[in-house]
Amino acid sequence: MNLQDFTFDQLLQLRQDVEKEIRSRKNQEAVALAKIVQTRAEQLGVTAEEILGMLGKKAAKKEPGAAKYANPANPADTWSGKGRKPGWFVAAINAGKSEADLLVK
Asked: Which residues of 71-102 are buried (b: 16+ CB within 10 A; e: fewer)?
């Protein structure tokens, strides 16, 4: 490939295409590496977060949200209202309870 044969617009397009491909491959490599680390961590009986801690880096951890709903049958079972609905919440709604009935008091 002789770059001298390309027009300016073709060179700009080529640069965009190359940068897009680099981003894609970088992402693919990172995903592959994450899978390797996860597999090896499981083999060693440690978490990926522990491994990152050994490197002096901290993995981003999401703090659980504040409890918004509680299981009427077991108030220790709570749900923040974010993410997938727990089974007890779905069962209570199907049994005729309203979301307001399940709010933490």
From this structure: beeeeeebbeeeeeeeebbeebeeeeeeeeeb
CA distances from 70 to 75, 80, 90 (A): 5, 9, 12
DSSP string of 37-61, one letter each residue? HHHHHHHHT--HHHHHHHTT-----
- Rounded to two decimals, the pTM is 0.45
Q: CA-CA distance, 105 to 42, in Å (whole number)?
A: 40
**Gap between the Cα atoms of 23 and 58, Å rounded:** 24
Average pLDDT over residues 6-25: 95
Cβ atoms of 78 and 104 closer than 8 Å:
yes
Helix (H) or strand (E) holding 35: helix 8-44
Q: Where are the domains of the chain?
A: 3-54, 69-102
